[in-house]
Amino acid sequence: MSDTDDAEVLDIPEMDADAWADYVEAQGWTDGLPLVVPTEDAVARMMDGARGDNKPFPAITPRQLVPTLRSLAANAVMAGCRPAYFPVVLSALRGVLVADYNLHGTLATTHSCAPMVMVNGPLRHALNINCGTNCFGQGWRANAAIGRALQLILSNVGGAKPAVMDRSTFGSPAKYTFCFGENEEDSPFAPYHVRHGFQAHESVVTVMSAEPNHNLNDHGSTTGESILTTFAGAIASPAANTVYAKGPYVLVFGPEHAATLARDNWTIEAIQQFLFDKARVSAALVSPENHRIYQEAGHMPENGFYKTAPTPDDIHIAVAGGPGKHSAWIPSFGGTAAISIPVTLPAG
């Protein structure tokens, strides 16, 4: 099933801002915040922002509707995107539609996951995507609108309506928007996308079904190993989905913590191995009932501890944020993957 251009154009009478807000609420299009009116001119300008990205999209679960570019553009307009943001939105959408991302499962779960969107490459600056201070927070239109557009597409086109198909027990603020850029300039390591096979000049979007960021505070440690020891203890949570060791997680180092690690000659691979070995949940902290569930699924403790990632490579490392001795742990839903998609810019 697919939508058509003719079916997407709605004849909506002139109305003021309050009437428009009531109208979209009645239609079930809103995420609860005001939406920009998707006029034909605004949608056409948004579509122009993606000329050259002609690869068709697969059907979006759960409605299994194959979207047209016009329907995607309309949601990007409503989210407050500039046309220049649209290629990033489309790449993020392509990422969540990769089978290993497990879009249907991540939408139907009672877990609080939402699509995390991380941007690498030159578009971070061209679009003014916040990579530094308060990068997970408010105040940057690109961060807010890109993540919001993806959420609106999944709800309005895909049909993942809260309390209907989206069955999250609590949800989270990340379900409004969860988009940030890697702080490549303040990172002592190669950029995330370069370490994953892309060129430095490419702009790349990485998506993962994730919880919001969990703050990791360590103002006392003065060595890289001590910082990692603190973080391993925080990640070793018996109540996070990571205890199932079925999927990835992301550790975002603040620049100050990253600088200490680099000073002490920690490589990305060494950090991954340390966390894989040390960020484990003590079996003594797991209830008897959960022991049975894990063991029935073949997830056995090793030397009295449950691992929290399948392999060291499932621990994804990035650098973002600004000054301060804070970092962030972003646990995944579990049954998902971190998917990186290059951004296709408009032809010419």
Care to give the gist of this entry?
The chain has 348 residues and is α+β, with helices and mostly antiparallel strands.
Written description of the protein model:
By secondary structure, the protein is of the alpha+beta class. The chain folds into two domains: 1-184, no CATH class; 213-338, no CATH class. Helix content is 34%, strand content 14%. It has helices spanning 5-8, 17-27, 40-48, 69-79, 86-96, 103-108, 123-126, 141-156, 192-195, 224-235, 255-263, 268-278, 288-296, and strands at residues 114-120, 179-181, 204-210, 214-217, 249-253, 280-282, 305-307, 315-319, 326-331, 339-342. The strands form three sheets. The chain has a four-stranded mixed beta sheet. It has a four-stranded mixed beta sheet with strand order 4-9-5-8. Strands 6-7 form a two-stranded antiparallel sheet. Helix 5 packs across helix 8. It is globular and about 65 Å long. The two termini are 33 Å apart. The model is unreliable at 1-7 (pLDDT under 50).
Structural descriptors:
alpha+beta; 4-stranded mixed β-sheet; 348 residues
Number of helices: 13
- Main β-sheet: number of strands, strand sense, barrel status? 4 strands, mixed
Whole-number tally of structural domains: 2
Radius of gyration: 21 Å
**Helix amount, in percent?**
25-40%
In sequence order, what are the helices and strands, one letter per element? HHHHHHEHHEHEEHEHHEHEEEE
Spans of at least 5 consecutive residues with low confidence: 1-7
Indicate the structural class: alpha+beta
- Backbone shape: globular
State the strand order across the main sheet.
2-1-3-10
Overall mean pLDDT stands at 95
